[in-house]
Amino acid sequence: MKWTQIPLGPLQTNCYVVSDGNDCIIVDPGEEPQKIIQYIQTKKLKPLAILLTHAHFDHIGALDAIRDHYEVPAYLHEKEAKWLLDPALNGSLNWFPENPMRMKPADHIIANEQRLTIGGFTFDIFETPGHSPGSVSYFARDERLLFSGDVLFQGSVGRTDLIGGSEQVLLNSIDTKLLPLPDDTIVFPGHGPVTTILDEKNANPFLR
User: Fold this and answer.
1) Which CA distances in Å does 206 have to 38, 130, 145, 175?
2) pLDDT score for 99
3) Could you tell me how far CA 114 lies from the centroid of its own chain?
4) Torsions phi, psi of 65, nearest 5?
5) What is the C-alpha to C-alpha distance for residues 171 and 158, in angstroms, rounded to an integer?
6) Domain count of the chain?
7) Which helix (H) or strand (E) holds 15?
8) Which of 24, 27, 53, 200 has its CA 20 to 30 A from that of 116?
9) Boundaries of domain holding 36
10) Per-residue pLDDT at 208
């Protein structure tokens, strides 16, 4: 399994294209759909699905453009199903009042923690609320790759002052769902550089 990090938009939100052979999964297409499409075309990949870690505007901005272009389904937790349609909830109304985001509903709703298989890709889905109520993390167990959205960053954690946020809930999510993963698990956050579980255990000041 290969991966590419593509920072997009004004907040430089990380979109990830995860590939296995010619097939790929897109995680958090936040903005600038042409950049995502260009990369996929250059690598001659075939998208199978879009995985959303949560539904804040900077993670969904290119969702419909990518979904329509490739005719692939999008996955999102049920607690944020309405956020795609509501610019007040997804935050775009505050950031872009002249152009608020209203996306089509998700094609597949995640209702609980489960193992998700799409083509040759398998992810364990962890419910990791705190940054937002429907935040999830996707863990490719065999490859030890974790897509943590805005829950865990290199040297930091997600902000909790937005709708549905809670510092206590966030830290509990990290302590109970993410830190128990193997130390060599590579963490792919929603912003900033890639890290590992071991590095965050040892050096993240928010987890001490």
Assistant:
1) 37, 14, 22, 11
2) 86
3) 16
4) -60, -45
5) 9
6) 1
7) strand 13-20
8) 200
9) 2-207
10) 79
